[in-house]
Amino acid sequence: MPRTIAIGDVHGCAEEFEELLDALNILEDDRVIQVGDLINRGPDSHRVLELARIYQVEAILGNHELRLLTAREENRPDLLKDYDKVTVDQLTASDWKYLENLPKLIHQPENDTVFVHGGFIPNRPWQHQPADIITSIQVIDKNGRAAKRSDAPNAPPWADTWIGSPFVIYGHTPRPNILERPGSIGIDTGCVYGGHLTAYIVEEKSLIQVRARKAYAHSKRLPDPV
Ligand SMILES: [Mn+2]
Asked: In the chain, where does DSSP find H-type helix?
């Protein structure tokens, strides 16, 4: 049976990405969906995009890709962070073309599943939530608004109050382990911070993980891995 394979945030970790793609033994009918943030922070964003093309990975828009694309389209270099500039210097015309074609989400009706980078505001229709929200939401603050975890450290993840359907597969919020809820699964296990790169096989509800070679960046929100 063909598989649907979701892959978490890669953030330029090309060696780990290639190891995971090899370990998956991808067959022609399999569908590989990366949940956004292929680029930035890690060592080789260009190689990651090249691997995505070689392995025919369908990716969706992450907040990092959205910022680079916005800065380019609106000619706003002031939007770029230092690590964005490192990435911009690496990107080829093919890389930009790949980024420009990323969808905001992927809906797979046959599995009643949606793939999105950050998540959704619960109790509202998911179909038309804006790109800047669905690529960046982490928690719901005390006023019921989408927020970053760093701005509302004690606020619950949006996934705690998302009951589905659809079932949502997302990345963006790095954690030492996946976060499973009845209506969702978060699969960003912080590879770039020295954690793991995670693949989730939808039909089997199984995981394949690759351990980071090292911590390429530091997170205040994650314990340093052993
Ligand atoms: Mn992100």
From this structure: 14-23, 45-54, 63-73, 82-90, 93-100, 131-134
For residue 20, give every residue at least 6 positions away whose Cβ sits within 8 Å of its Cβ, in sequence order, or none: 7, 197, 199, 208, 209, 210
Dist. CA 27 → ligand 1 center (Å): 28
Q: How far is the CA of 54 from the centre of ligand 1 (A)?
A: 23
- Cα of 214 to ligand 1 centre, how many Å? 20
Rounded to the nearest whole angstrom, what is the distance from the C-alpha of residue 178 to the centroid of ligand 1?
A: 15
pLDDT computed for residue 164 by the predictor: 84
Contact 158, 146 (CB under 8 A): yes
Each residue's pLDDT tens digit, 111-170:
999 999 999 999 899 999 999 999 999 999 999 899 999 899 899 999 999 998 999 999
Architecture of domain 4-211 in this structure: 4-Layer Sandwich (3.60)
**d(Cα 140, Cα 156) in Å, to the nearest integer?**
6
